[in-house]
Design goal:
6 helices; Beta-Lactamase; 255 residues; two-stranded antiparallel ribbon; alpha+beta; globular
């Protein structure tokens, strides 16, 4: 068979279909994600004060970096490694240049009766990527998820679009390991430290132009039980420490 550029391309696709389109060069790698995550965990005390996982994906949903803040991979909830990547995938999948939606903004709208109910079932996690070993590499620069598309949709706090200086979304960040409100606040701080919170003129649903994709606490209890109702449709329930998570404007303003 004559080797042409087309046949070479097809052969490469067959060998590594999930890595060809990775565009991680414009995004922080492990060497920047890890210290930013450590710094954010140290600064935030609104939850259970647990260690965290963080993941970054590019605009195609390819995992670019995974890190943890504890002394080893078991110092934070093991299940939160995949959840952090799932949150990053969600924020990327439903973020646009002109509209930033954090995963916290999707909570109410995806509950039964919400206009996006079922969204959380629409893009399942690729378990062959999520649980590929070796486990000893989890949360390191050689995490097996890196270079692969993880998939998944998660609709509680901790996932954010990453916006460059031109206010273009170039990927997303996901953080997991504590209450969903603490996840949101820690992820917010990580994005700020990485300098990828250039959203000042980007639309959002929070009502605060300085924090367009911040949590919205407008969920009132349902007297009949079940999920409460969000007045604006994009609300998120309070978590453990209402006095702290209920003051969303204490987070840094976006650039």
């Amino acid at each position: 068979m004559k080797l042409t550029s087309k046949t070479l391309f097809l052969a490469l696709c067959a060998l590594a279909p999930s890595t060809l389109w990775a565009d991680c060069k414009a995004l922080p790698g492990y060497d920047k994600l890890k210290p930013a995550l450590d710094q954010a965990v140290a600064a935030e005390g609104s939850g259970l004060n647990l260690h965290m996982w963080g993941s970054i994906v590019d605009r195609d949903g390819i995992v670019c970096a995974v890190a943890f803040s504890g002394f080893d991979r078991g110092a934070q909830w093991p299940g939160s490694r995949v959840i952090s990547a799932q949150k990053a995938n969600t924020a990327n999948a439903f973020g646009l240049d002109g509209l930033a939606l954090s995963t916290a903004n999707l909570f109410s709208v995806t509950q039964p009766g919400g206009s996006l109910y079922g969204l959380q079932e629409s893009n399942p996690v690729d378990i062959s990527v999520a649980y590929k070993g070796p486990a000893t590499a989890f949360g390191t620069a050689k995490d097996p998820m890196v270079g692969k598309a993880i998939g998944g949709v998660n609709v509680f706090g901790g996932g954010f679009g990453l916006y460059n200086a031109s206010r273009k979304i170039i990927g997303a960040l996901g953080v997991s390991g504590d209450t969903s409100c603490a996840d949101h606040r820690i992820g917010w701080r990580v994005r700020n430290t990485l300098g990828l919170d250039n959203l000042l003129t980007v639309g959002g649903v929070s009502g605060d132009p300085q924090r367009p994709d911040n949590m919205v606490f407008d969920v009132t209890d349902n007297p009949n039980g079940g999920t409460g109702k969000s007045a604006g449709g994009f609300g998120h329930p309070h978590c453990l420490n209402v006095a702290t998570d209920g003051v969303p404007n204490t987070l840094p303003a976006v650039r």
